[in-house]
Amino acid sequence: MKKLRFIHCADLHIDIPFKGLENLPSSLFKEVKQSTFKALERLVQTAINKHVDFVLMVGDVFDQSTQSVYAQMQFLHACNQLSDHNISVYVSFGNHDYLQRDLIKMDFPPNVHLFPDEHVTHFVHKKNNKDIATIYGFSYMNPAVYENKTPLFNKKTTTPYHIGMLHGSVEQNTGHDTYAPFKIQELVNKDFDYWALGHIHKRQHVKEFPPIVYPGNIQGRSKKETGEKGCYYVELSKHHTELTFIPIQTVRFEQLTIDVSTLTTIQAIEGAIDQQIQEFTTQGKCFIWIYLEHFNQEIEHFYYEGMLTDMIDFINEKMMGVNHWFWIQSIDLKGHGLIDKEIYRNGDHFLAEILRLSPETDGVDTVLKPLWKHPQARKFLTSLTNEEKDNMLEEAENILLYQLTRKHNQ
Ligand SMILES: [Mn+2]
């Protein structure tokens, strides 16, 4: 029986604005802004080079539900290129790019098949004029779908292969918002040949037989999405499936933690960074968030006095203009401060009073509200997770403690 060759990708998030990185030198920011488009180009090139039968795009093709004309034209261009090479494209839309009105009005070449709405429907793929695979899927029409869609995925044809496209996540039973939740066993029971998943940005094989796969996104979006990003090239036959991960990101996001327990000078820290950062310099364009762990009093002092940021500015400037650039986005201390806050907190003095006044996580919202409502500022701000709020509170406490207890000792 004929083999199927295809590309499985998801979460392309084309045209993501990369909020929070606007403070980069403009040439770098431009490259970052272009990265999702560049990754799309690489995706197309990969499909062409591998002579695949089709490309599956499983939701969140665009970052937003209303796309710029530029993003739409880029996507159409990609589809046209694939069409020129006789490669079909099957697209479902997800929670980020749920279908509104604009896109569907564009005239796509006949090789492009968009799942039109939230009903599970299917397309039959032909190879050499023979029906070979049925591809099932649905598109989000709203920013969220809470319904389990698996009961609606059922074999409707007698083609040799059946493939499900599903943008959603494994049911958690936490009462949390899971989108299009499913149970792994439910998918297995459908007796499909491949489950092409999307929504989770971290690449993972949920199951090997049948393959149930998240390819992850094709380009990282923030420091939380580290490592290589790309798509799967799949060779599917009735008895064997081969999955090859192909990285296509153009910019990487990385976190680097450095043990600084034995370091006491700026020069030594710079040396340690220089040495450890080497591994990233061969990996193409890379943004790095640095964390210093096991820091001592000297390093705490350098940090709070802004000396480490000065050092980073120097390293970054030195690296600018180098072909394969990396850019250190920030440097922070990792872990708790050197002062035992609990001792202070229970005391009977000014500092204890301040620590006891520290707001709870919820209080952060109240304090920050004016900033998030500010017409200029809000354009650049994204909402904070509880973890980020806790970190902010901790950092504020640490600064206060440093200023009130340490500063005069230095
Ligand atoms: Mn996504």
Compact overview of the structure:
This protein has 410 residues and is an alpha/beta fold. The chain contains ten helices and 15 strands.
Account of the protein in words:
This protein has 410 residues and is an alpha/beta fold. 32% of the residues lie in helices and 23% in strands. It contains 10 helices and 15 strands. The radius of gyration is 25 Å and the shape is elongated. The chain starts with a strand and ends with a helix. Bound molecules: manganese (II) ion.
> Which series of helices and strands comes N to C?
EHEHEEEEEHEEEEEEHEHHEHHHH
* Helix content bin: 25-40%
The CATH topology assignment of the largest domain is: Purple Acid Phosphatase, chain A, domain 2
Structural domain tally: 3
Q: What small molecules accompany the polymer chains?
A: manganese (II) ion
What is the secondary structure topology, with strand pairs?
Layout: E1 4-9, H1 26-49, E2 54-58, H2 69-84, E3 88-92, E4 112-114, E5 121-127, E6 130-137, E7 161-167, H3 184-189, E8 194-198, E9 204-207, E10 212-214, E11 230-236, E12 241-247, E13 251-259, H4 266-281, E14 285-293, H5 297-304, H6 307-319, E15 326-333, H7 341-345, H8 350-357, H9 361-373, H10 386-406
Parallel strand pairs: 1-2, 2-3, 3-4, 6-7, 7-8, 8-10, 13-14, 14-15
Antiparallel strand pairs: 1-11, 5-6, 9-10, 11-12
This protein binds manganese (II) ion (MN).
Residues 11, 60, 94, 96, 199, 201 line the site of manganese (II) ion.
